[in-house]
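Extended Data, panel c. Modelled sequence:
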Amino acid sequence: MVATAYVLISTRTGSEKQVYRGLEKLDGVYQVDAVFGPYDIIAIIQAPDYDRIGELVMDKIIPTEGIIDTITCNVIHIES
């Protein structure tokens, strides 16, 4: 099983490109998109389990220069 999460990211004004480029380089970051709306960037991250998702967010993403706030949404799979 691969754990997946969406990380909604607010950045300091003017640091969007810097944050975007930094996130692209991190292991475990599957996709990075700049968006309009209440958040500036949405990153899709993947790891072997949700503990590693937490480590990636806390140890690598949150400390990224220019990030003000994050919300992590863990993906769940609903079976029919």
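The two ends are 18 Å apart (CA to CA). This feature is highlighted in the accompanying rendering.
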